[in-house]
Write a structure and sequence with these properties.
This protein is an alpha+beta fold. The protein has eleven helices and five strands. It has a five-stranded antiparallel β-sheet with strand order 1-2-3-5-4. Helix 1 runs parallel beside helix 4 (about 60-80) and helix 1 (about 15-25) packs across helix 5 (about 85-100). The protein is globular. About 30% of the residues are buried.
């Protein structure tokens, strides 16, 4: 772990609401108009036990925000059906949110004075400052610390003869662990639902930063539970202590983190390549 920050107690809902507005603009549709029954029916209409807030329109209530996001992503999954289009849509959301909500980072990313790693750290700090995530950390980082080191690595990579190894690009990798992002509960529910489509807000923003820095970006993510609560009753603790051979003790899974693996690729300029 190279970096870890604990976030101040700030409200993530304004940023999350802005992300939702970008969704509706790109979809040319509003969730409240498409699914009025989700908003105005008194009875719960979901099959699972998703908590229904008392006031769905309350912009300060976290349960209301989670509910609205869930409905919005249901709308997106209905309109955008194939995986390729969904991925392109999520990346487009990241580009727009980066430009509109983090204009300074958008302007600096890719500049001569800012390395890729510095740009990613600025974004994570921005999300942290606005309360969208509680903490974050880098692991398994293969990112130059600054623009001089990045340029040196690119020059070194360029010493590989073209055509002999096929190594004619700069490849950088990193793993980012984002703890308790604002949408973690919804992500966990939607990953288990049909289609498995969710916002990928943080990965799409990290990808947008990479693109602004001149890289093509591939990302993969999975959810993680950092802390496990053991059995609470005495019989369950005894059974678990004996190995629980028939798996009778329930093991609740409640995700609290998203692990994001990133690959950044950038073709080397011809002037940087030595051809034999």
């Amino acid at each position: 772990s190279l970096q870890r920050q604990e976030a101040p107690a700030r409200n993530p809902i304004p940023l999350g609401t802005s992300v939702g507005q970008v969704y509706e603009r790109l979809l040319s549709s509003k969730a409240s108009e498409t699914y009025p029954e989700y908003y105005y029916e008194k009875d719960d209409i979901f099959d699972d036990a998703f908590p229904r807030p008392k006031n769905i329109s309350d912009l300060a209530d976290k349960e209301a925000y989670a509910f609205r996001s869930f409905v919005l992503w249901q709308l997106a999954s209905k309109i955008i059906e194939d995986d390729t289009s969904r991925m392109a849509f999520q990346k487009q959301v990241g580009r727009i949110v980066l430009k509109e909500q983090f204009p300074e980072i958008h302007a600096k990313a890719g500049g001569r004075q800012t390395s890729l790693r510095q740009s990613l750290e600025m974004l994570l700090r921005g999300l942290y400052d606005r309360g969208y995530l509680v903490s974050w950390q880098f692991q398994n980082v293969d990112l130059p610390l600054d623009e001089q080191e990045e340029e040196a690595e690119e020059q070194e990579t360029g010493n590989v003869p073209v055509g002999l190894t096929g190594d004619d690009e700069l490849l950088l990798q990193a793993r980012v662990i984002v703890e308790r992002p604002a949408d973690i509960e919804i992500v966990e529910r939607l990953r288990a639902s049909d289609g498995g489509f969710w916002g990928r807000v943080v990965p799409s923003l990290l990808s947008a930063v990479g693109e602004r820095s001149g890289f093509s970006v591939d990302s993969d993510e999975f959810i993680l539970m950092n802390q496990w609560e053991g059995p609470k009753t005495l019989p369950e603790r005894v059974l678990k202590g004996l190995g629980d051979p028939f798996f009778q003790v329930p093991v609740p899974f409640k995700a609290d983190s998203i692990v994001i693996d990133l690959q950044f690729r950038r073709p080397l300029q011809r002037s940087q390549l030595k051809v034999q």
